[in-house]
From TrEMBL:
<dbReference type="GO" id="GO:0004803">
    <property type="term" value="F:transposase activity"/>
</dbReference>
<feature type="domain" description="Transposase IS200-like">
    <location>
        <begin position="8"/>
        <end position="129"/>
    </location>
</feature>
<dbReference type="InterPro" id="IPR052715">
    <property type="entry name" value="RAYT_transposase"/>
</dbReference>
<dbReference type="GO" id="GO:0006313">
    <property type="term" value="P:DNA transposition"/>
</dbReference>
<dbReference type="Pfam" id="PF01797">
    <property type="entry name" value="Y1_Tnp"/>
</dbReference>
<protein>
    <submittedName>
        <fullName>Transposase</fullName>
    </submittedName>
</protein>
<dbReference type="GO" id="GO:0043565">
    <property type="term" value="F:sequence-specific DNA binding"/>
</dbReference>
<dbReference type="InterPro" id="IPR002686">
    <property type="entry name" value="Transposase_17"/>
</dbReference>
<dbReference type="InterPro" id="IPR036515">
    <property type="entry name" value="Transposase_17_sf"/>
</dbReference>
């Protein structure tokens, strides 16, 4: 399979990253995941517009610095930092050769945000995701999300997401 990623220096990107075999390990290791984000952002700066962490996957929107398009390096560092203290799963030869631990799926979904409308649809998708998966009744009830920060920034009312938002149906990534 030949997959081509889009690299846009200083771009804004939506990502979906999934654990290997959808292991539900992210919430149980949320402090480790947060530390991996902090470590990665110190080494390779980027801004986070939005993020939601579910047990087996996460979605996020990142803004890279002007002149920088290397989100792949950031994901490599973040995944390794998170994985290093965890015990390894049963690994195949390819995983051992690539120094993987069997924690993350190798690939991730990347989408370059095209405009304000596209950004808003992805922002809504991220914040509605815990409701979509049946974890909570409203985005405000999910503690592993940037939703309440977005409410504080005036992007949402606190009761947003009690019903399926219109733009969420336009985003199909997982």
């Amino acid at each position: 399979m030949e997959y081509r990623r889009n690299f846009e220096a200083g771009g804004t990107y939506f990502f979906t990253v999934v654990t290997q075999s959808r292991q539900p390990i992210l919430i149980d290791n949320i402090d480790l995941l947060r530390a991996a984000f902090v470590h990665t952002r110190k080494r390779y700066p980027f801004e986070i517009d939005a993020v939601v962490v579910l047990p087996d996957h996460l979605h996020t929107i990142w803004n890279l610095p002007r002149g920088d398009d290397d989100y792949a390096r950031r994901w490599m560092v973040l995944k390794r930092k998170f994985s290093s203290p965890l015990s390894s799963a049963t690994l195949n030869r390819s995983q051992r050769r690539k120094r993987e631990k069997g924690v993350w799926q190798r690939r991730y979904w990347e989408h370059t945000i095209r405009d304000e409308r596209d950004w808003r649809h992805h922002l809504d998708y991220i914040h509605y995701n815990p409701v979509k998966h049946g974890y909570v009744q409203a985005p405000r009830d999910w503690p592993y999300s940037s939703f309440m920060r977005a409410v504080g920034d005036g992007l949402y009312e606190p009761d947003w997401g009690m019903e399926i938002p219109a733009g969420v149906a336009d985003v199909e990534y997982e």
